[in-house]
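Minutes, project check-in
Item: structure for the 272-residue chain
Input as provided by the requester:
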Amino acid sequence: MENKTVLVTGGTDGIGRETALQLARMGARVLVHGRDKEKGTQVLNDIGREPCKEKASLCLADFSSLADVKRMAEDIKREQAELHVLVNNAGNFSKERLLSADNIEMTMAVNHFAPFLLTLLLLDLLESSAPARIVNVASSAHKLMRSVDFENLQRGTNYDGFAAYSLSKLGNVLFTQSLADKLTGTDVTVNALHPGVVNTKLLRKSYHLDGMSVKEGAQTSVFLVSSPLVDGISGKYYKNMQERPASNLSQDKILQDAFWKLSEEMVSQFLD
């Protein structure tokens, strides 16, 4: 990872923080995204204490605001000559139905629409820095979705926090496969992963469960960012550093196209 610039979203907590630390140890220059400056500064300090040749930088943005996502992307494009890897790791879980600054159901806003917009805004920089990789942290929860009700994507009726989370993670996998098709012929790849049930703030907030360590949980993200074993591989889903089949639903080409179209419409005003 020497001389590689990597952006890790949600890099101030849990899996994202551990991913950023491990990549910095491997020699990468890490852009750490977070929404809390104090926590972000602590991560930079932690990286600074490691035997790293390159310094890390902090990128502040609230992913519940698409305008803030766009502002961060513009800052990165202005300040960075290259971007070799984008790790879409930031995630949200809410037991209660909340709305984002853009009047979008919060879990879907943060987990799907924000990384969808960020990725599209940074594609030119990734392509000009190629070979480049996009890594989407999804979840095996996407496999719980048996269908998609486009009339109730906002979960306005019968809200269930885990159903909203599962739908957003299905969105991550659909996005991964659609984007891989669109990137055919370029030297930019995109893959998704299930990190495992990890002892993170999100897990404790949602179900008060314990899980594996964040060090174990970051393994597949770090693998997809750095391993030569995935050179040229795109549109796949990984678990435990091994390719696994994504759900049948996520491989429905008609659904992939419909979800992309909807996502593009939702963020269209921020793509100009």
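Outcome recorded: Strands lie at 5-8, 29-34, 57-60, 85-88, 132-137, 188-194, 237-239, 242-244.
No further action items on this chain.
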